Each structure stands twice: as C-alpha cells, then as structure tokens.
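Subject: two folds for Thursday's group meeting

Dear M.,

Sorry for the delay on this. The cluster queue was jammed most of the week, so I only got both jobs back this morning. I'm pasting them in the order they finished. Each block is the input sequence followed by the predicted structure tokens. Could you check whether the formatting survives your parser before we put anything on slides? The first protein is the one we discussed after the seminar.
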Amino acid sequence: MKQATTSLIETLLPFSITLNSDRVISGLGSSLRRRYPNLHVGAKLADFFEVLTTEQLDRAFQPLSGRDARHFLMIRLRQTGLRLRGNARKLEDGLILLELSPAIVSEDEFARVGLLYEDLAFSDNTLDLMISLRAHRQALNQAKEVSAELDSKNKVLALTQQELVGMLEQERLSTQFRNRVLAMLSHEFRTALAQILSVGEILRRGIKIDNREAILKHGNTLANSASQIAETFDSLGNYARTESLEGHHFERLHLESLISEAIERVPKGEVARIVSRKPQTQRDSDNPVIIETSRSLFLLALSNLLNNAVKYSAPGSDIIVEYETCGGEVAIRVSDQGIGIPLQKQVDIFQAYVRGDNVGKRQGTGLGLAVVALCLNSLGAKIHLRSGVGEGSTFTITMPLVPRSEVAHDGGGSEFLKDGVYPT
C-alpha cells in the first residue's frame, strides 16, 4: 500500500492491523501503537494476539473472488484481556486488513484494559455503547433509589396501617366493654331499684305493717337491694383499679398471715366455715413461707376467690384454703363443694362478665374472676382451675417463693417479722 493510504487507514481505524502473507504485522492503528508500545511492525500476529475465529482469518488469505470478501474476526491481545472484533479482508496488493474495534460490554472492562475515550474513532459504535451503558447504569441507580424510597414509605404506611388497625380494635373493645357495662348496670340496678321502690311505695301509701315478719321481710329487701348495688360498684371499682395496675408496692410477706387476713375479709354467709390448712411438712416447722408480692393485689385476688366459693357453695359446706411448697414455688389452693363451672365456660371464665349457665338466681357481675386474673398476671403468678358441675371447684395459684437464703434474720438467729412483713 502507499504510505499515505496506510496512514489514513491507521488514523481512521485506530485498532486496525495490516498483515502480509506470512501473518507478520506490517501496519498498526494509532490507538494500538499509543496504548500498547510493545506491539510493533514486523512482529508475528500470533506472538501478541490469540485469534478466536481462526477459520475466518484463514479464509481471508485465500485468492480474491469476484467480490470483496469480508470475514468476521475476533481476537484477544495477550496478557491484557483486550478483545477486538471486526472484519478481515484481502487488499489488492495481497495484504490482509483487520478492521477492528474494542469488543467492550461494560465501562469497567473499558477501563480495565487501559483504554480512554480518545482512543476510539468518532465513528466507532463502542463509544455509543459506553454512553448507553453509562446511561443505563445511572437509570438503574435512580431506579434503585426510587425503589428504596418506595420501600421505606411502604414500611411507614404498613406501620401506620397497623397502628390504625390497633386503634380501631382498641376502640371496638372499648365500645364493647362500655356496652357490656351499661347492660350489666341496667340489669343489676333495675332489679335492685325495683325492690327498693316497691318497699318505698308501701311506706309512701302508709300501709300498716303490724307484724314482725313483714317488717323483717321488707327490711331485708332494702338491705339486699342496697348490698347488690354496693357489690356492683365494688366489682367495677376493683376491676378498674386492677386493670390500670398502677402504684402497687411489692414487699416480702408471710403467706399464712395473708391467708388469714383474706379469710377475715370474707363474709361467711351460709357456709359452715373456711378452713386454712398448712402442709404436713410445714406444721412442725418454724420456718414460715415468704412470698414477694403486692399485699393489696394478692389479698384482692384471694378474697375474690373466697367470695366466689362462699356464693356458689351449698349451705353447711366447708371451703378449704391450703398450700404446699415445691422447689422454688408455692401452690395455694381454694377448694369448695359448690355448684361447679360448666366445662364449656371454663375457657373464658377469667374474662370480664362471663358467668356459668348454672348460677341460677345468685346475684353477680361476672367481674370477680376477671379481677383475680388481672391481679395474678401483675404479680407474675399463674392460676389453674379444676371443676365439674355439681362437684365443686378448685382454684390453684402458683407463684415463686423468696429463697430461704434471702430471708432477713434478727440478732438471735430467728426471722424478724412485724405485721406479717419481712424487711427487704
């Protein structure tokens, strides 16, 4: 080829290679000369390049046919990773021209093989590819940012939705609770007030009551009705206080003293007696059982259990309160010989306003055992029920003991107890 033609080809095709019939390099494009100085004219192609499409290159050296044959070619510059792709065609003077450009698939690869944008010819579509790849990467990054932002907003929306669902559920429960309270108050008060009004009407009309039995009957009616209203208010007040569970002081207390105090609080009614039993192993021992608890909550829970036992027990029957220790816990049982609780009600019996179907005309609010459950939950205690209709009920409270090693002693070596309270 003429020198001017060679220079023009090397400028327009910066990655071109010209070979003679022996496959020796006779010309190099400007970018190959500039970026890879070890390449030089006179070197064999195979010393520097690995030909990936050997058959196509071999065909380029065959005699020219009636048309200008072009053969696709892919080669790789050894020890650099640079891949070049393009056409191999035979020129009129017998030389082979490899019209090549970088076979690049990413900007990282472009930089890794040591190329710059200035190495590319203006017409080289590799530049377009680089621009497209860069635009694609930027768009992908923006899409990821938008996706991350959307995920964050979706999480916030999900939390907000959960909060709204929770608030709606609380509102539903609050409305349900209010309706049940109003229904219960309406029923309890209507019955009691009707009886009070009945006696009041007798007194208003000045009807003469001339025998002791009638006076006692009407007096008991007034007392029972007032007691029913007072019990309803007491139950609601206890439930409200235990539901808030605020301001309760925990201290170490003598269990037997607490049981005795709870028994003293309970009107015995028609039951024969409430019996407190110590375990056999405890009777001959001077070591009292100590629990760490809130006096008010514990007494309220135990008193409610005893009140229930009295209310639903047959006249003349005994109610038994006993306890036993096992390991680091104490089990306190309250047993009666009353009407028992139907099996289908036992699952929900500790919920507010749940009563057995067999209570008959016995007055009650359905809050007693709900108060017990709230108190014991706050104390970290558990309660178990065993009952059968007509067979009575046994409620078992399980709670931790204060270890003997932590019980305080006085100077003489015995436990120091004042008003049923051990110093902490």
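Second protein, same layout:
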Amino acid sequence: MNQTPAGERVHIAFFGRRNVGKSSLMNAFTGQELSVVSPVEGTTTDAVYKAMELLPLGPVVLIDTPGLDDSGELGEKRVRKALEVMRKTDIAIVVADGTVPLGEAERELIPEFERKGIPWLLVYNKEDLAEKVSADEETVLPEKGMAGERTLRVSAKTGFHIRELKERVAALVPGDVEKPLIGDLLSEGDTVVLVVPLDAGAPKGRLILPQQQVIRGVLEAGASALVCRDSELEKTLQKLVSPPRLVVTDSQVFDRVGRIVPESVLLTSFSILMARYKGDLAQLAEGAKAVERLGDGDRVLICEGCTHHRQCEDIGTVKIPNLIRRYTGNKQSVCEPEFSFTSGTEFPTDVSSYKLVVHCGGCMLNRREMQYRLERCREQGVPVTNYGVLIACLNGILDRAVGIF
C-alpha cells in the first residue's frame, strides 16, 4: 500500500450542484464504490476523501463535496463545508449535468478558480442521457476558445470518456508540486546531522513525518544523514572527520543544540525547513518578531494542522505558551497573553482579533491549505509564524537558523 501522506498528495476535488453525478463520477474515476449514490438530492452531506495513484501525476487525494445549491439551514452548512474544500484544492473538477444548460453555481465557480490560480476542468456528466449541448450554451465559459481545452463530456454510468478524464486531470499539474524540502541545499557527498530528541512527546516506535521527509530528501540528494539525540550530539560531531554541511534539529532543543554546534556549521530546524517548503519563510520570520510587542491580555492563536492525543508536555498547548510567557514576562513585570487553540481542519476565517498566530510546521496539510492560512493572516494584518521560527527567535538565533537560505 502506498504510504504517501495526504499532505504530500495533489488534492483533486469534485464540485457542482446536487444530483449532477459528482459521487457517481468519483466512483467511476476510482473504480470503487466510495461515495453513496442516490437519485435523492443532497445524498452527499460531508466531503468524502480517497487516496489513490493517478499516473503520470503520482499520489493524489480525491474529494467528493456536497452540492453547492443545497438549501435550508443544514444545507447552508453543507455548502460552507464544500467551499472550505477549495482551500486545499490543487485541481478542481467542476461537474455539470449534461442534460441541462450550465447553472449559476458552475458559472460562479470557474472565475473563482481562475482568481485563485487553481487549474480546473468542466465536465458535463450524463452523456448517456444528454443531447448535444448547443454552441450557445458553451459560451458561458470565462474565456472564448477554452471549450476544447477545459471541457469534457462523460458518462459515469457507461464509463464514456472516464479514461480521457483521468488523462486530462493528470495533465493539470500545479506548478509548485515539486518544491524541494532540503535537496536544493545539498550537494552529493554532503553529511547532514539530524538531531531527534526522544522525549515524552516523541511517538513510540517511529519518527515524526518531517523527520522522515528530511531523511528521504537528504538521501535523494546523494548526501548522508546521520541521526542522533541531542544528548549524543557533542560526541557525534567530535567523531566526524570533517564538519557536516548542515545540522537540522528539532525546534524544542534549539537552545541546547545552538550552543553545541560551532558557529561555522550551518544550523536550522525541521520546522523551519517545513516553513520554507509549505509556507512563506520571510513572512513567518517577520511574524516571529511580533512576540516583542505582546502585552498583557493580548490574544495569541496557536494552530495545529492535525489532531493528536495531547500529552502533559504537548508543544502546542504547553511548551509554546510557556516559552512566550517566560519571554514576555522577562520584558514586562505583568504580561499574560490569552491563548486560543485550533487543530486539524479548523482555522478561523476572521483572525483580526489576534496579535499573533503561531502555526505548527503543517506537515499534515498540503501546500495550498497552508498558503490559504498565511494569506488570511496577511490580508488582515496579523503577524503569523511557526513553531520552529518562533523558538529560534526566542533563543536569539533566528538569523543563524535561516542563514542557509
């Protein structure tokens, strides 16, 4: 089974009105009965996710969404959930009923995808029932001459053009899919030391995802990865014949590792690598400086991109708040910020009441979703940073930690 995490997969979402055949089309696309199919409008009430391989694109996640024309109080909530999927959509498939003219929902969606830079394909389903759509009906597309390139007639029932649909979708590769995590910083033959503390917060029997991804990136660059705990770091460096090209540390031991690693050796963290990989490192580095301006009662939002069992020394709910309290308390006699927390897919549309947003590395989010969150902060003038960038800033080594970039 392919174990590529969801955050590293291209997200392909099916959008459209109720009863146009989105669920049937996704089932035909995957060759599996994933979504419940019924002639009753509004059968799909929550987004349905399916991971698969789509060659030559590679690992993807398919998302079936509720109908965009749902009504009533519950229907409006379903529509909001469907539109939230757009935050993480890399490729959009707009599904229309091929037996009727294009509706307002589809007409409004396509310009929105254009505005957000999301590649899209308009698919007329139910070809087995439809008569040919007139040329006049196809002029609803935002740009003339796009009909051949951006539309396709299919039948989820008979399988007509399903293979061509897969080929068309696979060709709509987003431009930032191949962004490197660490490989562009290394040369063949380099040695990279990875510092991985095994404390109470470390998962039993495995490494966390960013650590796995960095090791893979080092190996793909033809370099060597040497992994040790922070307690063995000093001896590990002494045993090397020549200094390593780079030391990558867990952010939580930044202070200790910064004192051990010579100034002549480049140093950064897994979280800072993730900040560059999925976010905007310059924005996050500038955002970390906002901790200097925090006052008593100022609101700070701390966001986790995944949900997990919280432990007594959880970094998001315990360690980061304590670090901020200690730092601001040293500068002001009375300074107790007010902390709020979100996790998983939760992220407020309105963050304007916060003086600072602190995000995790986002390893479980795809790049599109992470960019959406940063953009919300940027638009509302709210500083945002991430765990590793903030910890480096609080320890006075941020300039050093981003020096390799």
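Two things I noticed about the second structure. Residues 134-146 have pLDDT under 50 and may be disordered. Residues 315-331 form the longest helix (17 residues).

Cheers,
T.
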